[in-house]
Specification:
By secondary structure, the chain is of the alpha/beta class. It has three domains: 44 residues, no CATH class; 171 residues, Nucleotidyltransferase, domain 5 (2-Layer Sandwich); 43 residues, no CATH class. It is 23% helix and 23% strand. Strands 7-6-3-4-5-12 form a six-stranded mixed β-sheet. A four-stranded mixed β-sheet has the order 10-9-8-11, with helices on one face. The longest helix has 18 residues. The protein is globular.
């Protein structure tokens, strides 16, 4: 616990969250209604800042995405052909994606997405030798844990659309009496499912993908608290829609970052970038790693 002037908040947050990868709880004072003339206040945590839940901090790089990634598994077998669900979001821009991949391809997906933080189900703590941790070894990003018990959330369409909410995560199968600390990965038949309205065009039937979305949403709710935004429906990425570039190619060809200098200087991105907006620069970086 520490205190410092509010004007230095961003500088300390950059050091603690981005460099040291610490979780920082923001506590604020709120006035209490009292019959006396004395002013009374209560303090409560309004937000927990983590590397993947940065919103509008001034030290965020507007040319680069700050993705929070959740990984959903159906079993702990560790087979390379096991299907794995991915869900990732940039809270600062609202970009929200999901897809299904095999455990064998997870390392390549991590190199393409380049998350700042990864969320896993707590059951994986008991299996430190699971292949998922070897895939995460080279990402240099913190790993967080949460479960998706008793989660109900609603996705909304973008503000310009007038349609009612179409997608909701149903977690009724998780409402049962058991110790949350001892939760293991659920059986595939018990995993969360996505209910799509009659006019919806989103099909997220694979249970691993919906489980990853549930993990991600629960983690956001636990840490953003009063700052939790309304989430748009995630964009589902199909396996056949993009040309997948493996992690070694992304690094060796210096597509996004330079090997020797670090950062984007000297990379392919810095050579071809002629964008005029920050959003265009982020989109171009994503296109270079996932050519349609």
């Amino acid at each position: 616990m520490s205190g410092f002037p509010l004007i230095h908040l961003d500088r300390h947050l950059k050091t603690l969250v981005q460099q040291e990868q610490r979780f920082v709880a923001m506590c604020e004072e709120f006035p209490l209604q009292s019959n006396t003339n004395s002013k009374e206040f209560e303090r409560r945590i309004t937000r927990v800042i983590t590397p993947g839940t940065l919103i509008d901090e001034s030290f965020l790089d507007p040319l680069d995405n700050n993705y929070l990634l959740a990984i959903g598994l159906s079993t702990l077998s560790g087979a390379s052909s096991q299907m794995t669900g991915l869900a990732w979001i940039d809270v600062s821009t609202g970009e929200f994606f999901s897809k299904i991949c095999t455990l064998e391809n997870l390392r390549d997906e991590l190199a393409r997405i380049a998350p700042r933080e990864v969320v896993l189900p707590p059951s994986l703590k008991a299996t430190p030798k699971h292949p998922i941790f070897s895939a995460l070894a080279n990402t240099d990003c913190p790993i967080s844990y949460t479960n998706a018990l008793a989660l109900e959330t609603t996705f909304v369409d973008p503000p310009l659309k007038q349609d009612p909410p179409l997608v909701s995560i149903s977690m009724d199968n998780y409402h049962r009496e058991r110790d949350p600390a001892a939760v293991s990965l659920p059986h595939p038949s018990e995993q969360p499912t996505l209910n799509v309205g009659p006019s919806g065009d989103l099909d997220l039937s694979p249970t691993q993908e919906s489980f990853a979305i549930a993990l991600l949403t629960k983690f956001l709710q636990e840490n953003l608290l009063e700052h939790m935004p309304l989430l748009e429906r995630p964009i589902h990425e199909g396996a056949q829609e993009i040309m997948q570039i493996d992690s070694h190619t992304i690094q060796d060809l210096e597509i996004r970052e330079s090997i020797y200098e670090g950062g984007t200087k000297g990379s392919l991105l810095s050579v071809v970038k002629r964008t005029t907006t920050n959003g265009g620069a982020r989109l171009l970086a994503r296109w270079l790693c996932e050519s349609p």
